[in-house]
Amino acid sequence: MKLSFREMVPEDAEQVEKVEQACFAIPWSRKSFWEEAANENTFYLLALDDGEVIGYAGTWLVAGEAQITNVAVAPEYRGKGVGTALMTELVRHVKEQGITAMTLEVRPSNAPALALYAKFGMKEAGRRKGYYSDNGEDAIIMWNTKL
Ligand SMILES: CC(C)(COP(=O)(O)OP(=O)(O)OC[C@H]1O[C@@H](n2cnc3c(N)ncnc32)[C@H](O)[C@@H]1OP(=O)(O)O)[C@@H](O)C(=O)NCCC(=O)NCCS
């Protein structure tokens, strides 16, 4: 694997959409990624293998807090440390912006994601009942307020 990282630009939206569709029951559209890349209050980091998008992690930077919107790694690349590397780079970037708190939502059934987020000091702070519209699953709200 020839792994590299860089910030997403709008022109990446087509490749990112392909990974998104392989990863989520309710995928975001290509247009959403285009808009997220163009928004100056966001930071989206891509993981690439030999120039091809294999994963990404995105965040909104709002009122001194980082709200993680999505973290995804293409199925055939999972379990090789790519998710950890993306989160490490993302945290480094937001800390450089002076941000010290990070939050996200995750499904209780998503063991790999819960394990990944625990590595970054994310702790359960509450639940949103029936948050996910595909199966009515709750969302766990996680925070790390001491990045
Ligand atoms: C969550 C996700 C991004 C992790 O990416 P990844 O590249 O496989 O992550 P890593 O290889 O860095 O593994 C991170 C940790 O997750 C855990 N983990 C990985 N695969 C796992 C599995 N199948 N079951 C349980 N835990 C697992 C391990 O604890 C691992 O840490 P360790 O290697 O130090 O033990 C990936 O599984 C994914 O894209 N899932 C689908 C999309 C998704 O659900 N995103 C999160 C939405 S909130």
Write a concise synopsis of the structure shown.
By secondary structure, the protein is an alpha+beta fold.
Topology readout:
Blueprint: E1 3-7, H1 13-23, H2 30-38, E2 42-49, E3 52-62, E4 65-73, H3 82-96, E5 101-106, H4 111-118, E6 123-128, E7 139-144
Parallel strand pairs: 4-5
Antiparallel strand pairs: 1-2, 2-3, 3-4, 5-7, 6-7
Helix pairs in contact: 1-2
Bound molecules: coenzyme A.
Helix content: 25-40%
Give the tally of β-strands: 7
Terminus-to-terminus distance? 30 Å
How does the helix and strand content classify structurally? Answer: alpha+beta
CATH fold-level assignment: Aminopeptidase
- Count of alpha and pi helical runs: 4
Strand line-up in the sheet with most strands? 1-2-3-4-5-7-6
Second CATH tier, the architecture? 3-Layer(aba) Sandwich
Radius of gyration: 15 Å
What does this molecule look like?
This protein has 147 residues and is α+β, with helices and mostly antiparallel strands. It has one domain (3-144): Gcn5-related N-acetyltransferase (GNAT) (Aminopeptidase). The protein contains 4 helices and 7 strands. β4 (65-73), α3 and β5 form a beta-alpha-beta unit. The longest helix is centred in the middle third of the chain and has 15 residues, at 82-96. It is globular. The structure holds coenzyme A. Residues 23, 71-73, 78-84, 106, 110-113, 115-116, 119 line the site of coenzyme A (COA).
